[in-house]
Amino acid sequence: MRNEEREMRSEEVLSPRSSVLSPELLQRVRWRCRRGLLELDIVLGRFVEAHYALLSDKERQIFEEFLDMPDNPLWDMISGRQDAVSDEQAALLEKIKSV
């Protein structure tokens, strides 16, 4: 029972769909933004500090999908060398680039 409670609690804290942005979630996102490419570290870190708390649930979900990508394709999307898959991705990429 105790493990189940812990799992449920961690899902609530870490869920990008959560209506309340917990410090644990923000820390996890910051950690996931640490990448092998310095350029990504800088761009993603600045974006998280400036805008992550203001994103909608859908935008947070898309951002999580970006963080699941390998560094080079993600950097290609941010730098404009590769097109976004959807209009929603393109809109979030524009927010990321604006920082």
Keywords, separated by commas or semicolons:
99 residues; mainly alpha; 6 helices; disordered N terminus
Outline the secondary-structure elements:
Blueprint (H helix, E strand, L loop, with lengths): L1 H13 L8 H10 L5 H14 L5 H12 L2 H9 L7 H11 L2
Oligomer: single chain
What name does the CATH topology carry? DNA polymerase, domain 1
The proportion of residues in beta strands is under 5%
Largest sheet: none
CATH architecture: Orthogonal Bundle
CATH superfamily: Flavinator of succinate dehydrogenase
Please write the CATH class name.
Answer: Mainly Alpha
Q: Estimate percent helicity.
A: 55-70%
Characterise the protein shown here.
The protein is an all-alpha fold and 99 residues long. It has one domain (2-97): DNA polymerase, domain 1, CATH 1.10.150.250. The protein contains six helices and no strands. The protein has helices at 2-14, 23-32, 38-51, 57-68, 71-79, 87-97. Residues 1-19 have low confidence and may be disordered.
Brief summary:
This protein is an all-alpha fold and 99 residues long. The protein has helices at residues 2-14, 23-32, 38-51, 57-68, 71-79, 87-97.
